[in-house]
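Hi team,

Below is the intake form for 4'-phosphopantetheinyl transferase domain-containing protein from Bradyrhizobium ivorense. Please confirm the fields before the structure is written into the shared record.

FORM ID: S-0412
PROTEIN: 4'-phosphopantetheinyl transferase domain-containing protein
ORGANISM: Bradyrhizobium ivorense
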Amino acid sequence: MYDRRTLKQRDLFVLKEAVYKACFPMDRQFLDFKDVEIDIFARSGRVSKANRTFSLELLISENRSGVFAAE
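The structure came back. Fields below:
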């Protein structure tokens, strides 16, 4: 379970979207929101449907955020 601050900032959505965008070109599978599991503390995203795990880096500045996802 994540705290409200994390969910408020939409970090979870941004991380899931990054994993989806990294996975789709490799497998050409459409994923639902529930198909991507994020572990913020381990900095990883898992797509069990495609049997792939991605390393994540969430970068937040004063007015922007970005994510890097790599298998």
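SUMMARY LINE: Residues 4-70 form one domain.

Thanks, M.
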